[in-house]
Amino acid sequence: MSFDPAVIAQARIEIANAPHGMKTETAGKWAKILNTTMQTLYRNINPDVNSKRTRKGQPQKPEYQKWARIVYQIKKCPPEEAGEISTEDAVLIAVKSGLIPEAAIDVPIGTYNRIARENGWSKKEVRANRFQAERPNQAHHFDASTSKFFYIAKRFCDGDYLLKLHRPAKHYKNKPVPVDALRPWIYGLTDDYSGRLICRYVAAQGENSVDSMSFLSWAWSIIGLPEQLLADQGMLKKALPSRDLIERLGIELPEMMPYQKRGHGKIERPWRTAWQKFEKPFWAVADQEKFEITLSELNKQLLHFIEDKYNKLPHRFERHITRMQAWSKINLHGGIVTMPENALATVARRCKRKVSVEGKLEYNGKSYEVKGLHSAWVWVFEGVFEDRLIVQDCKTGMKYEVRDFEPLNLGEYKSHKQTPHQELVKESANLNISKDAMLYADKAPRDEKIVAMPIRTKEDREIADPFDVTTYASIDEAMGEFMKIVLSLDPENKEVVKRLILQNGLKKQYVMDLALEIRAIKETKNAAVAGG
Fold first, then answer.
1. Is 212 in the same domain as 270?
2. Where do transmembrane segments lie in this chain (predicted)?
3. Whether this model's pTM surpasses 0.85
Protein backbone atom coordinates (compact mmCIF):
# COMPACT_ATOMS: atom_id res chain seq x y z
CA MET A 1 0.00 0.00 0.00
CA SER A 2 1.44 3.36 -1.02
CA PHE A 3 0.75 6.72 0.63
CA ASP A 4 1.27 10.36 -0.36
CA PRO A 5 4.81 11.28 0.78
CA ALA A 6 3.55 14.66 2.03
CA VAL A 7 0.99 12.94 4.26
CA ILE A 8 3.62 10.52 5.59
CA ALA A 9 5.97 13.43 6.31
CA GLN A 10 3.24 15.26 8.25
CA ALA A 11 2.48 12.09 10.25
CA ARG A 12 6.18 11.61 11.00
CA ILE A 13 6.51 15.20 12.34
CA GLU A 14 3.39 14.95 14.55
CA ILE A 15 4.42 11.58 16.02
CA ALA A 16 7.97 12.80 16.69
CA ASN A 17 6.74 16.03 18.38
CA ALA A 18 3.99 14.32 20.40
CA PRO A 19 4.32 14.72 24.21
CA HIS A 20 5.70 11.88 26.30
CA GLY A 21 3.14 9.11 26.54
CA MET A 22 1.10 10.39 23.59
CA LYS A 23 3.13 9.01 20.66
CA THR A 24 1.13 5.77 20.46
CA GLU A 25 -2.17 7.63 20.58
CA THR A 26 -0.97 10.03 17.86
CA ALA A 27 0.20 7.13 15.68
CA GLY A 28 -3.14 5.39 16.17
CA LYS A 29 -4.97 8.54 15.05
CA TRP A 30 -2.90 8.73 11.85
CA ALA A 31 -3.36 4.98 11.19
CA LYS A 32 -7.12 5.48 11.42
CA ILE A 33 -6.95 8.48 9.05
CA LEU A 34 -4.94 6.44 6.52
CA ASN A 35 -7.11 3.33 7.04
CA THR A 36 -4.12 1.12 7.81
CA THR A 37 -2.41 -0.58 10.73
CA MET A 38 0.12 1.03 13.05
CA GLN A 39 2.76 -1.48 11.92
CA THR A 40 2.34 -0.41 8.29
CA LEU A 41 2.39 3.24 9.31
CA TYR A 42 5.68 2.85 11.22
CA ARG A 43 7.25 0.96 8.28
CA ASN A 44 6.43 3.90 5.98
CA ILE A 45 7.53 6.57 8.48
CA ASN A 46 10.96 4.95 9.06
CA PRO A 47 11.76 2.97 5.86
CA ASP A 48 15.54 3.16 6.33
CA VAL A 49 15.41 1.73 9.84
CA ASN A 50 13.25 -1.19 8.75
CA SER A 51 15.43 -2.03 5.73
CA LYS A 52 18.50 -2.33 7.94
CA ARG A 53 16.74 -4.38 10.58
CA THR A 54 18.38 -7.73 11.33
CA ARG A 55 15.87 -10.43 12.07
CA LYS A 56 18.43 -12.98 13.25
CA GLY A 57 21.59 -12.34 15.17
CA GLN A 58 24.94 -13.72 14.07
CA PRO A 59 26.38 -16.47 16.28
CA GLN A 60 28.76 -15.08 18.85
CA LYS A 61 30.66 -18.37 18.93
CA PRO A 62 30.80 -19.96 15.44
CA GLU A 63 32.68 -22.99 16.81
CA TYR A 64 29.45 -24.14 18.46
CA GLN A 65 28.08 -24.92 14.98
CA LYS A 66 30.99 -27.27 14.25
CA TRP A 67 30.80 -28.94 17.66
CA ALA A 68 27.02 -29.41 17.37
CA ARG A 69 27.40 -31.05 13.95
CA ILE A 70 29.88 -33.60 15.30
CA VAL A 71 27.68 -34.25 18.35
CA TYR A 72 24.65 -34.93 16.15
CA GLN A 73 26.68 -37.19 13.87
CA ILE A 74 27.39 -39.35 16.92
CA LYS A 75 23.72 -39.20 18.01
CA LYS A 76 22.66 -40.74 14.70
CA CYS A 77 25.11 -43.66 14.68
CA PRO A 78 22.55 -46.31 15.85
CA PRO A 79 20.15 -47.82 13.28
CA GLU A 80 16.75 -46.19 12.89
CA GLU A 81 14.98 -48.90 14.88
CA ALA A 82 17.26 -48.36 17.92
CA GLY A 83 16.61 -44.63 18.30
CA GLU A 84 19.29 -42.00 18.92
CA ILE A 85 22.02 -41.53 21.53
CA SER A 86 21.18 -38.74 23.99
CA THR A 87 22.81 -35.38 23.28
CA GLU A 88 24.55 -35.43 26.67
CA ASP A 89 26.13 -38.83 26.00
CA ALA A 90 27.05 -37.83 22.44
CA VAL A 91 28.95 -34.78 23.77
CA LEU A 92 30.91 -36.96 26.22
CA ILE A 93 31.75 -39.49 23.48
CA ALA A 94 32.90 -36.72 21.14
CA VAL A 95 35.16 -35.19 23.81
CA LYS A 96 36.57 -38.57 24.86
CA SER A 97 37.27 -39.40 21.21
CA GLY A 98 39.12 -36.10 20.71
CA LEU A 99 36.67 -34.89 18.07
CA ILE A 100 35.78 -31.71 20.01
CA PRO A 101 37.65 -29.92 22.84
CA GLU A 102 36.86 -30.40 26.52
CA ALA A 103 35.38 -26.88 26.61
CA ALA A 104 32.41 -28.29 24.69
CA ILE A 105 31.23 -30.01 27.87
CA ASP A 106 30.50 -26.61 29.43
CA VAL A 107 28.13 -25.67 26.59
CA PRO A 108 24.47 -26.16 27.67
CA ILE A 109 22.82 -29.19 26.10
CA GLY A 110 19.93 -26.96 25.02
CA THR A 111 22.35 -24.97 22.87
CA TYR A 112 23.32 -28.05 20.88
CA ASN A 113 19.66 -29.00 20.45
CA ARG A 114 18.74 -25.45 19.35
CA ILE A 115 21.49 -25.39 16.74
CA ALA A 116 20.31 -28.79 15.50
CA ARG A 117 16.72 -27.58 15.17
CA GLU A 118 17.82 -24.47 13.27
CA ASN A 119 19.81 -26.61 10.81
CA GLY A 120 17.15 -29.30 10.40
CA TRP A 121 19.25 -32.08 11.93
CA SER A 122 16.44 -33.11 14.29
CA LYS A 123 13.96 -33.76 11.48
CA LYS A 124 13.99 -37.53 11.03
CA GLU A 125 11.37 -37.81 8.29
CA VAL A 126 13.14 -37.77 4.93
CA ARG A 127 11.71 -37.10 1.51
CA ALA A 128 10.25 -40.16 -0.15
CA ASN A 129 10.10 -41.07 -3.83
CA ARG A 130 6.89 -42.61 -5.12
CA PHE A 131 7.03 -45.07 -7.98
CA GLN A 132 4.16 -46.65 -9.85
CA ALA A 133 3.93 -49.38 -12.44
CA GLU A 134 3.02 -48.37 -15.98
CA ARG A 135 0.24 -50.94 -16.37
CA PRO A 136 -1.80 -53.47 -14.36
CA ASN A 137 -0.03 -56.69 -13.35
CA GLN A 138 3.39 -55.24 -14.09
CA ALA A 139 4.25 -55.63 -10.40
CA HIS A 140 2.52 -57.15 -7.39
CA HIS A 141 3.35 -56.54 -3.70
CA PHE A 142 3.08 -59.53 -1.31
CA ASP A 143 2.84 -59.49 2.49
CA ALA A 144 1.52 -61.58 5.39
CA SER A 145 0.48 -60.65 8.91
CA THR A 146 -1.24 -62.19 11.91
CA SER A 147 -4.79 -61.20 12.80
CA LYS A 148 -4.94 -58.50 15.47
CA PHE A 149 -8.24 -59.49 17.10
CA PHE A 150 -9.01 -63.16 16.26
CA TYR A 151 -7.59 -66.41 17.57
CA ILE A 152 -8.25 -70.05 16.63
CA ALA A 153 -10.36 -71.73 19.31
CA LYS A 154 -11.30 -75.07 17.71
CA ARG A 155 -10.56 -77.34 14.75
CA PHE A 156 -13.37 -79.08 12.86
CA CYS A 157 -13.18 -82.51 11.22
CA ASP A 158 -13.83 -81.01 7.78
CA GLY A 159 -10.67 -78.87 8.00
CA ASP A 160 -12.45 -75.66 8.97
CA TYR A 161 -11.65 -73.70 12.14
CA LEU A 162 -13.66 -71.79 14.75
CA LEU A 163 -12.39 -68.30 15.56
CA LYS A 164 -13.11 -66.07 18.56
CA LEU A 165 -12.37 -62.47 19.44
CA HIS A 166 -9.51 -61.70 21.81
CA ARG A 167 -9.18 -58.34 23.56
CA PRO A 168 -5.61 -57.23 22.93
CA ALA A 169 -3.56 -55.81 25.77
CA LYS A 170 -1.84 -52.53 25.04
CA HIS A 171 1.54 -53.07 23.39
CA TYR A 172 1.08 -56.87 23.73
CA LYS A 173 0.33 -58.63 20.47
CA ASN A 174 0.33 -62.31 21.48
CA LYS A 175 -3.03 -64.11 21.59
CA PRO A 176 -4.14 -67.53 22.88
CA VAL A 177 -3.04 -70.52 20.79
CA PRO A 178 -5.10 -73.44 22.19
CA VAL A 179 -5.12 -75.44 18.92
CA ASP A 180 -1.66 -76.74 18.03
CA ALA A 181 -0.15 -73.24 18.33
CA LEU A 182 -2.14 -72.21 15.24
CA ARG A 183 -2.84 -68.54 14.55
CA PRO A 184 -5.00 -66.85 11.89
CA TRP A 185 -2.66 -65.38 9.29
CA ILE A 186 -3.75 -62.96 6.56
CA TYR A 187 -1.96 -63.14 3.22
CA GLY A 188 -2.38 -60.21 0.83
CA LEU A 189 -1.42 -59.20 -2.71
CA THR A 190 -1.62 -55.63 -4.09
CA ASP A 191 -1.32 -54.57 -7.72
CA ASP A 192 1.21 -51.73 -7.90
CA TYR A 193 -0.53 -49.82 -10.72
CA SER A 194 -4.16 -49.92 -9.60
CA GLY A 195 -3.90 -50.60 -5.86
CA ARG A 196 -6.32 -53.54 -6.22
CA LEU A 197 -6.08 -55.80 -3.15
CA ILE A 198 -6.81 -59.50 -2.82
CA CYS A 199 -6.36 -61.40 0.45
CA ARG A 200 -7.55 -64.29 2.63
CA TYR A 201 -7.08 -65.87 6.07
CA VAL A 202 -5.26 -69.16 6.71
CA ALA A 203 -4.56 -71.13 9.89
CA ALA A 204 -0.85 -71.65 10.48
CA GLN A 205 1.78 -71.65 13.22
CA GLY A 206 3.70 -68.95 11.38
CA GLU A 207 4.45 -67.46 7.99
CA ASN A 208 5.71 -70.24 5.74
CA SER A 209 6.47 -70.83 2.08
CA VAL A 210 3.78 -73.51 1.58
CA ASP A 211 0.95 -71.19 2.64
CA SER A 212 2.56 -68.38 0.68
CA MET A 213 2.64 -70.42 -2.53
CA SER A 214 -0.88 -71.74 -1.97
CA PHE A 215 -2.19 -68.18 -1.54
CA LEU A 216 -0.31 -66.86 -4.56
CA SER A 217 -1.65 -69.71 -6.70
CA TRP A 218 -5.21 -68.84 -5.63
CA ALA A 219 -4.72 -65.09 -6.08
CA TRP A 220 -2.98 -65.35 -9.45
CA SER A 221 -5.70 -67.67 -10.74
CA ILE A 222 -8.06 -64.69 -10.23
CA ILE A 223 -6.05 -61.66 -11.32
CA GLY A 224 -3.34 -63.27 -13.48
CA LEU A 225 0.44 -63.49 -13.23
CA PRO A 226 2.59 -60.37 -12.73
CA GLU A 227 5.87 -59.52 -14.38
CA GLN A 228 7.47 -58.79 -10.99
CA LEU A 229 6.74 -59.85 -7.41
CA LEU A 230 7.95 -57.49 -4.68
CA ALA A 231 8.23 -59.07 -1.23
CA ASP A 232 10.19 -58.65 1.98
CA GLN A 233 12.91 -61.01 3.20
CA GLY A 234 10.38 -63.59 4.45
CA MET A 235 9.93 -67.31 3.86
CA LEU A 236 8.70 -66.76 0.30
CA LYS A 237 12.17 -65.59 -0.67
CA LYS A 238 14.17 -67.79 1.68
CA ALA A 239 12.62 -71.13 0.67
CA LEU A 240 14.10 -72.73 -2.45
CA PRO A 241 10.83 -74.39 -3.62
CA SER A 242 8.95 -71.09 -3.70
CA ARG A 243 11.81 -69.27 -5.44
CA ASP A 244 12.00 -72.09 -7.97
CA LEU A 245 8.26 -71.96 -8.70
CA ILE A 246 8.28 -68.18 -9.19
CA GLU A 247 11.30 -68.46 -11.48
CA ARG A 248 9.71 -71.21 -13.59
CA LEU A 249 6.54 -69.08 -13.92
CA GLY A 250 8.68 -66.41 -15.55
CA ILE A 251 8.19 -63.88 -12.73
CA GLU A 252 11.02 -61.63 -11.57
CA LEU A 253 11.70 -61.61 -7.82
CA PRO A 254 13.90 -58.53 -7.26
CA GLU A 255 16.16 -58.51 -4.25
CA MET A 256 15.07 -55.82 -1.79
CA MET A 257 17.48 -54.34 0.75
CA PRO A 258 16.89 -55.65 4.30
CA TYR A 259 15.34 -53.17 6.76
CA GLN A 260 14.37 -50.83 3.90
CA LYS A 261 10.64 -50.76 4.64
CA ARG A 262 9.88 -47.79 2.36
CA GLY A 263 10.13 -50.06 -0.68
CA HIS A 264 7.07 -51.98 0.56
CA GLY A 265 4.98 -48.97 1.59
CA LYS A 266 2.25 -49.77 -0.93
CA ILE A 267 1.46 -53.05 0.82
CA GLU A 268 2.67 -52.48 4.40
CA ARG A 269 0.57 -49.44 5.42
CA PRO A 270 -2.61 -49.72 3.26
CA TRP A 271 -2.67 -53.48 3.83
CA ARG A 272 -2.60 -53.13 7.62
CA THR A 273 -5.26 -50.39 7.48
CA ALA A 274 -7.49 -52.49 5.23
CA TRP A 275 -7.68 -55.67 7.28
CA GLN A 276 -7.92 -53.83 10.63
CA LYS A 277 -10.82 -51.78 9.21
CA PHE A 278 -12.46 -55.11 8.36
CA GLU A 279 -11.87 -56.71 11.79
CA LYS A 280 -12.74 -53.82 14.14
CA PRO A 281 -16.54 -53.77 13.43
CA PHE A 282 -16.82 -57.28 14.89
CA TRP A 283 -16.33 -55.71 18.34
CA ALA A 284 -19.79 -54.09 17.97
CA VAL A 285 -21.45 -57.51 18.39
CA ALA A 286 -23.34 -58.10 21.64
CA ASP A 287 -21.58 -60.41 24.11
CA GLN A 288 -18.17 -60.19 22.49
CA GLU A 289 -16.69 -62.99 24.60
CA LYS A 290 -19.15 -65.51 23.13
CA PHE A 291 -18.89 -64.35 19.53
CA GLU A 292 -17.76 -67.13 17.18
CA ILE A 293 -17.18 -67.33 13.45
CA THR A 294 -15.71 -70.01 11.20
CA LEU A 295 -12.64 -69.36 9.11
CA SER A 296 -14.57 -70.02 5.91
CA GLU A 297 -17.30 -67.52 6.86
CA LEU A 298 -14.65 -64.96 7.84
CA ASN A 299 -13.00 -65.36 4.44
CA LYS A 300 -16.38 -64.95 2.70
CA GLN A 301 -17.04 -61.69 4.52
CA LEU A 302 -13.48 -60.54 3.86
CA LEU A 303 -14.04 -61.13 0.14
CA HIS A 304 -17.24 -59.06 0.26
CA PHE A 305 -15.34 -56.24 2.03
CA ILE A 306 -12.53 -56.27 -0.51
CA GLU A 307 -14.78 -56.48 -3.59
CA ASP A 308 -17.66 -54.23 -2.47
CA LYS A 309 -15.75 -51.57 -0.54
CA TYR A 310 -11.97 -51.48 -0.65
CA ASN A 311 -11.41 -52.08 -4.36
CA LYS A 312 -14.17 -49.56 -5.16
CA LEU A 313 -12.24 -46.75 -3.48
CA PRO A 314 -10.78 -44.07 -5.81
CA HIS A 315 -7.44 -44.69 -7.46
CA ARG A 316 -4.45 -42.91 -5.88
CA PHE A 317 -4.02 -40.41 -8.72
CA GLU A 318 -6.88 -40.97 -11.15
CA ARG A 319 -9.53 -39.98 -8.61
CA HIS A 320 -12.39 -40.27 -11.12
CA ILE A 321 -12.05 -44.06 -11.38
CA THR A 322 -11.92 -46.86 -8.81
CA ARG A 323 -9.02 -49.20 -8.15
CA MET A 324 -10.90 -52.04 -9.81
CA GLN A 325 -11.58 -49.92 -12.89
CA ALA A 326 -7.90 -48.99 -13.03
CA TRP A 327 -6.94 -52.67 -12.91
CA SER A 328 -9.46 -53.47 -15.67
CA LYS A 329 -7.27 -51.43 -18.02
CA ILE A 330 -5.32 -54.64 -18.40
CA ASN A 331 -7.61 -55.35 -21.37
CA LEU A 332 -5.83 -52.53 -23.18
CA HIS A 333 -2.59 -54.49 -22.82
CA GLY A 334 -3.85 -57.84 -24.15
CA GLY A 335 -5.41 -59.26 -20.97
CA ILE A 336 -4.08 -61.37 -18.13
CA VAL A 337 -1.52 -64.16 -18.19
CA THR A 338 -3.17 -67.21 -16.65
CA MET A 339 -1.71 -69.41 -13.94
CA PRO A 340 -1.00 -73.00 -15.09
CA GLU A 341 -3.39 -75.49 -13.51
CA ASN A 342 -0.61 -77.88 -12.50
CA ALA A 343 1.73 -75.23 -11.09
CA LEU A 344 1.54 -76.30 -7.42
CA ALA A 345 1.93 -79.94 -8.41
CA THR A 346 5.37 -79.08 -9.78
CA VAL A 347 6.65 -77.52 -6.56
CA ALA A 348 9.41 -79.71 -5.18
CA ARG A 349 11.97 -79.85 -2.41
CA ARG A 350 15.44 -80.77 -3.62
CA CYS A 351 18.29 -82.45 -1.78
CA LYS A 352 21.36 -84.47 -2.73
CA ARG A 353 21.64 -88.19 -1.98
CA LYS A 354 23.75 -91.20 -3.05
CA VAL A 355 22.23 -94.22 -4.81
CA SER A 356 24.01 -97.38 -3.67
CA VAL A 357 25.47 -100.09 -5.84
CA GLU A 358 22.24 -102.09 -5.59
CA GLY A 359 20.16 -99.08 -6.69
CA LYS A 360 18.98 -98.34 -3.16
CA LEU A 361 18.14 -94.80 -2.07
CA GLU A 362 17.75 -93.80 1.59
CA TYR A 363 15.50 -90.75 1.98
CA ASN A 364 13.65 -89.45 5.04
CA GLY A 365 13.97 -92.75 6.89
CA LYS A 366 12.61 -94.88 4.02
CA SER A 367 14.30 -97.06 1.45
CA TYR A 368 13.57 -96.69 -2.24
CA GLU A 369 14.74 -98.45 -5.38
CA VAL A 370 15.85 -96.33 -8.33
CA LYS A 371 14.96 -98.10 -11.52
CA GLY A 372 17.82 -98.04 -14.02
CA LEU A 373 20.46 -96.32 -11.86
CA HIS A 374 23.06 -97.33 -9.27
CA SER A 375 26.29 -96.01 -7.73
CA ALA A 376 25.50 -92.37 -8.49
CA TRP A 377 24.91 -89.05 -6.80
CA VAL A 378 21.40 -87.79 -7.48
CA TRP A 379 19.12 -84.86 -6.79
CA VAL A 380 15.95 -86.03 -5.02
CA PHE A 381 12.80 -84.06 -5.92
CA GLU A 382 9.94 -84.44 -3.44
CA GLY A 383 6.53 -82.91 -4.10
CA VAL A 384 5.48 -80.21 -1.63
CA PHE A 385 1.76 -80.28 -2.43
CA GLU A 386 1.54 -83.80 -3.91
CA ASP A 387 3.06 -87.15 -2.96
CA ARG A 388 5.58 -87.37 -5.79
CA LEU A 389 9.22 -88.43 -5.76
CA ILE A 390 11.78 -88.72 -8.56
CA VAL A 391 15.57 -88.51 -8.75
CA GLN A 392 17.87 -86.81 -11.25
CA ASP A 393 21.38 -87.99 -11.97
CA CYS A 394 23.73 -85.16 -10.97
CA LYS A 395 26.14 -86.13 -13.74
CA THR A 396 23.91 -86.75 -16.74
CA GLY A 397 20.72 -84.88 -15.82
CA MET A 398 18.61 -87.96 -16.55
CA LYS A 399 15.50 -88.41 -14.38
CA TYR A 400 14.46 -91.76 -12.90
CA GLU A 401 11.36 -93.10 -11.24
CA VAL A 402 11.57 -94.56 -7.72
CA ARG A 403 9.58 -97.21 -5.89
CA ASP A 404 9.61 -98.77 -2.45
CA PHE A 405 12.69 -100.92 -1.90
CA GLU A 406 11.98 -104.59 -1.36
CA PRO A 407 15.04 -106.81 -0.81
CA LEU A 408 15.05 -110.33 -2.13
CA ASN A 409 14.08 -113.14 0.24
CA LEU A 410 16.88 -115.24 1.71
CA GLY A 411 17.42 -119.48 -0.18
CA GLU A 412 -9.51 -56.61 42.38
CA TYR A 413 -9.23 -52.00 43.04
CA LYS A 414 -10.64 -48.74 44.48
CA SER A 415 -13.32 -47.51 42.18
CA HIS A 416 -13.47 -44.03 40.71
CA LYS A 417 -16.13 -42.04 38.97
CA GLN A 418 -16.38 -43.28 35.44
CA THR A 419 -15.26 -41.03 32.63
CA PRO A 420 -17.56 -40.27 29.67
CA HIS A 421 -15.49 -42.74 27.66
CA GLN A 422 -16.03 -45.51 30.23
CA GLU A 423 -19.75 -44.72 30.39
CA LEU A 424 -20.02 -45.12 26.62
CA VAL A 425 -18.14 -48.41 26.75
CA LYS A 426 -20.53 -49.65 29.43
CA GLU A 427 -23.58 -48.46 27.47
CA SER A 428 -22.32 -50.15 24.30
CA ALA A 429 -22.77 -53.54 25.99
CA ASN A 430 -26.54 -52.95 26.00
CA LEU A 431 -26.85 -52.30 22.26
CA ASN A 432 -27.57 -55.97 21.55
CA ILE A 433 -26.30 -55.92 17.96
CA SER A 434 -26.82 -59.27 16.24
CA LYS A 435 -24.57 -61.12 13.84
CA ASP A 436 -26.87 -60.16 10.96
CA ALA A 437 -25.83 -56.52 11.35
CA MET A 438 -22.25 -57.26 10.35
CA LEU A 439 -21.19 -55.00 7.51
CA TYR A 440 -20.05 -57.67 5.10
CA ALA A 441 -22.25 -60.66 5.93
CA ASP A 442 -24.09 -60.19 2.61
CA LYS A 443 -22.61 -59.33 -0.73
CA ALA A 444 -23.60 -55.92 -2.08
CA PRO A 445 -26.24 -56.10 -4.86
CA ARG A 446 -24.89 -55.73 -8.35
CA ASP A 447 -26.13 -52.84 -10.51
CA GLU A 448 -27.95 -54.57 -13.37
CA LYS A 449 -27.60 -51.47 -15.56
CA ILE A 450 -23.83 -51.88 -15.62
CA VAL A 451 -22.37 -54.70 -17.68
CA ALA A 452 -18.83 -55.54 -16.63
CA MET A 453 -16.43 -56.16 -19.48
CA PRO A 454 -14.95 -59.66 -19.24
CA ILE A 455 -11.24 -59.92 -18.63
CA ARG A 456 -9.45 -61.36 -21.62
CA THR A 457 -6.71 -63.96 -21.49
CA LYS A 458 -3.56 -63.05 -23.36
CA GLU A 459 -1.79 -66.38 -23.03
CA ASP A 460 -1.75 -69.67 -21.13
CA ARG A 461 1.72 -69.97 -19.70
CA GLU A 462 3.31 -73.40 -19.60
CA ILE A 463 5.52 -74.54 -16.75
CA ALA A 464 8.26 -77.15 -16.71
CA ASP A 465 7.50 -80.17 -14.51
CA PRO A 466 10.56 -81.50 -12.62
CA PHE A 467 8.77 -84.84 -12.18
CA ASP A 468 8.53 -85.44 -15.96
CA VAL A 469 10.59 -88.49 -16.99
CA THR A 470 9.32 -88.58 -20.59
CA THR A 471 11.78 -85.96 -21.87
CA TYR A 472 15.54 -85.79 -22.32
CA ALA A 473 17.61 -83.45 -20.17
CA SER A 474 19.40 -81.90 -23.18
CA ILE A 475 19.53 -81.96 -26.98
CA ASP A 476 22.88 -83.73 -26.86
CA GLU A 477 21.39 -86.59 -24.87
CA ALA A 478 18.43 -86.79 -27.26
CA MET A 479 20.71 -86.85 -30.33
CA GLY A 480 22.81 -89.56 -28.71
CA GLU A 481 19.79 -91.86 -28.40
CA PHE A 482 18.68 -90.87 -31.90
CA MET A 483 22.02 -91.82 -33.47
CA LYS A 484 22.04 -95.20 -31.69
CA ILE A 485 19.06 -96.11 -33.87
CA VAL A 486 19.86 -94.25 -37.10
CA LEU A 487 23.60 -95.07 -36.91
CA SER A 488 24.68 -92.39 -39.40
CA LEU A 489 23.38 -89.07 -40.70
CA ASP A 490 24.97 -86.23 -42.64
CA PRO A 491 25.58 -82.90 -40.79
CA GLU A 492 22.91 -80.98 -42.71
CA ASN A 493 20.17 -83.45 -41.80
CA LYS A 494 21.44 -83.58 -38.21
CA GLU A 495 20.67 -79.86 -37.80
CA VAL A 496 17.17 -80.41 -39.21
CA VAL A 497 16.60 -83.28 -36.76
CA LYS A 498 17.83 -81.16 -33.83
CA ARG A 499 15.33 -78.42 -34.67
CA LEU A 500 12.48 -80.95 -34.90
CA ILE A 501 13.39 -82.51 -31.54
CA LEU A 502 13.58 -79.11 -29.83
CA GLN A 503 10.25 -78.04 -31.34
CA ASN A 504 8.67 -81.16 -29.86
CA GLY A 505 10.04 -80.52 -26.36
CA LEU A 506 12.78 -83.23 -26.29
CA LYS A 507 10.09 -85.90 -25.91
CA LYS A 508 11.58 -89.41 -25.73
CA GLN A 509 8.72 -91.00 -27.68
CA TYR A 510 9.05 -88.46 -30.50
CA VAL A 511 12.81 -89.04 -30.75
CA MET A 512 12.31 -92.80 -30.98
CA ASP A 513 9.52 -92.56 -33.58
CA LEU A 514 11.53 -90.14 -35.71
CA ALA A 515 14.65 -92.30 -35.52
CA LEU A 516 12.77 -95.46 -36.52
CA GLU A 517 11.09 -93.63 -39.41
CA ILE A 518 14.39 -92.31 -40.79
CA ARG A 519 16.09 -95.68 -40.38
CA ALA A 520 13.26 -97.37 -42.26
CA ILE A 521 13.65 -94.86 -45.11
CA LYS A 522 17.40 -95.46 -45.24
CA GLU A 523 17.03 -99.24 -45.28
CA THR A 524 14.46 -99.01 -48.08
CA LYS A 525 16.84 -96.91 -50.15
CA ASN A 526 19.75 -99.28 -49.48
CA ALA A 527 17.65 -102.28 -50.51
CA ALA A 528 16.62 -100.55 -53.72
CA VAL A 529 20.24 -99.76 -54.57
CA ALA A 530 21.35 -103.32 -53.86
CA GLY A 531 18.56 -104.77 -56.00
CA GLY A 532 19.31 -102.45 -58.91
1. yes
2. none
3. no
